[in-house]
Specification:
Keywords: Membrane, Transmembrane, Transmembrane helix. The chain has a domain of 43 residues. The protein is 53% helix and 12% strand. The chain is built from three helices and four strands, in the order H-H-E-E-H-E-E. The mean pLDDT is 80. With 129 residues, it is of the alpha+beta class. A hairpin with a 6-residue loop joins strand 3 and strand 4. Helix 2 runs antiparallel to helix 3. The termini are far apart. Strands 1-2 form a two-stranded antiparallel sheet. A two-stranded antiparallel sheet has the order 3-4.
Length: 129
């Protein structure tokens, strides 16, 4: 019995840690960790379940502890959604320094120094000495 309580406490702490990580820095790995921790919490919350809120059968029902995994899944979904939107924004905001090649085949960078400037762009030569 003591081992079961310990393992359920470890699962609850991992759910809290993964959810905090996902809320502070949402990306795919933190969102996946929150989702996995939520799944583990549903499986291992037996000794810490609390009161039954909704009874499906005499032996099964929705408990207070099951609500934590629902919150964890919502946090993971928010993390996935935020990551997806951030990637879309990054893809749509291409740097203005890129332009299309005249034949349309590939992007080429705009020259850093405009033609006719005073900056020498040739190879660096060292003086023999």
């Amino acid at each position: 019995m003591q081992n079961a309580v310990f393992y359920s406490l470890v699962a609850m702490c991992s759910l809290f840690a993964a959810s905090t990580w996902c809320l502070s820095r949402p990306h795919l790995l933190s969102s996946a960790a929150a989702l996995v921790a939520s799944g583990l919490w549903v499986l291992m919350n037996g000794p810490l379940e609390g009161r039954v809120l909704y009874s499906v059968t005499p032996n099964h029902g929705l408990t207070e502890a099951d609500l934590l995994s629902g919150v964890g899944v919502c946090i993971a979904a928010w993390g996935f959604w935020t990551t997806r939107n951030r990637r879309r924004r990054r893809r749509s905001q291409r740097p203005s320094s890129y332009r299309r090649h005249p034949d349309g085949s590939r992007a080429m960078p705009t020259p850093v120094f405009p033609a006719g400037s005073d900056v020498e762009t040739g190879p660096i030569r060292r003086k023999a000495g």
